[in-house]
């Protein structure tokens, strides 16, 4: 009996992050803005290819693991495009999908731009019945509620940025469609909740290459049927390439941030120390993000570089 209870508890622990967390909150959100806002597409002077990996709650069996890949570029002076692929796994549940983004940028002043973004996405939800251990092998709940659904949706965002700052607002899962593209005759019983993000950062200092600069940042997430969640972060840069910092996630974790941001490649690492009651059962979370800064050979590159001729290379905006 005790063994069965433990199995059920493990399943509940693994399922809760998918429904309560749904979209993974990354500690390195300052490094790659595209997953949080489609308006970021094409706002940099180069074309970043970003690989990310996150292992949450190390030491807990079948704890959440997330991988993502993103790329975005500008195809004209005021037009950007991007693509974002992700795979989030937690116990028997898996969410895999892809988002394609389009943005339009206008000059809001001599040194700032305002970007409007729209994105379409596809998400596949799967629940592995073989990983669900129940007392009754023919449990109707498992047989009827485990699904494989392929669901489309939309996202939109606004991104205002300049030499030393950025501010963004975005909304995901706008449609909340009830249609499964694999089986359009069967309504989807549950989808991702509509989610609102707001994030901002500002860089202080950076008078010359060898100076120290400080960048505070924050992100807020509001989701229906889930607690309000926000992160407060700060990073200290040296030589505009090396940084160390920390981040606090409300009632959840305290993260240590380390990174390098070179002219062609950037690497960011985060270690999350849990602050919730679950902290006694795991040894923290690990996250690494690698950015490859590929060149943009668009004929409008010269004009765009003149606008984005920043004194330093700030990973929040570039």
| Structural shape | globular
Question: In CATH terms, what is the fold-level topology?
Answer: Porin
Helical content class: 10-25%
Mean pLDDT: 81
What gap, in angstroms, lies between the N and C termini? Answer: 56 Å
- CATH homologous superfamily placement: monomeric porin ompg
Oligomer kind: single chain
Q: Count the DSSP helices.
A: 3
Structural class, by secondary structure, is: mainly beta
Kindly give the count of domains.
1
Order of helices and strands: HEEEEEHEEEEEEEEEEEEH
Please explain how this structure is put together.
This protein has helices at residues 2-21, 140-145, 301-307; strands spanning 47-55, 65-76, 79-90, 93-107, 112-127, 148-162, 165-172, 179-180, 183-187, 195-202, 204-205, 212-223, 229-238, 242-249, 253-261, 265-274, 285-294. By secondary structure, the protein is mainly beta. It has a single domain, classed as monomeric porin ompg (Porin, Beta Barrel), CATH 2.40.160.40. The longest helix is centred in the N-terminal third of the chain and has 20 residues, at 2-21. It is globular. It starts with a helix and ends in an 11-residue tail after the last helix. The model is unreliable at 1-21 and 305-318 (pLDDT under 50).
């Amino acid at each position: 009996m005790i063994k069965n209870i433990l199995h059920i508890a493990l399943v509940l622990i693994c399922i809760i992050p998918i429904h309560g967390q749904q979209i993974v909150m990354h500690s390195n959100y300052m490094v790659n803005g595209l997953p949080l806002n489609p308006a970021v597409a094409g706002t940099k002077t180069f074309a970043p290819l970003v690989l990310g990996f996150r292992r949450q709650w190390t030491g807990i069996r079948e704890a959440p693991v997330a991988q993502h890949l993103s790329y975005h570029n500008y195809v004209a002076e005021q037009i950007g495009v991007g693509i974002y692929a992700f795979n989030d796994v937690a116990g028997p549940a898996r969410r895999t999908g892809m988002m394609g983004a389009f943005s339009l940028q206008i000059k809001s002043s001599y040194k700032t731009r305002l970007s409007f973004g729209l994105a379409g996405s596809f998400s596949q939800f799967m629940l592995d019945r073989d990983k669900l251990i129940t007392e009754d092998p023919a449990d109707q709940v498992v047989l009827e509620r485990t699904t494989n659904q392929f669901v489309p949706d939309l996202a939109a965002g606004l991104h205002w940025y300049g030499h030393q700052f950025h501010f963004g607002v975005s909304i995901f899962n706008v449609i909340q469609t009830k249609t499964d593209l694999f089986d359009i005759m069967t309504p989807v019983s549950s989808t991702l909740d509509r989610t609102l993000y707001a994030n901002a950062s500002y860089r202080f200092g950076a008078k010359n290459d060898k100076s120290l600069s400080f960048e505070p940042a924050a992100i807020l997430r509001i989701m229906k049927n889930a607690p309000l969640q926000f992160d407060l972060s700060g990073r200290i840069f040296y030589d505009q390439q090396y940084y160390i910092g920390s981040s606090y996630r409300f009632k959840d974790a305290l993260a240590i941030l380390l990174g390098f941001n070179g002219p062609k490649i950037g690497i960011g690492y985060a270690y999350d120390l849990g602050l919730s009651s679950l902290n006694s059962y795991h040894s923290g979370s690990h996250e690494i993000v690698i950015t490859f800064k590929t060149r943009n050979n668009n004929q409008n590159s010269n004009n765009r570089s003149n606008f984005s001729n920043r004194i330093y290379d700030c990973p929040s905006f570039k």
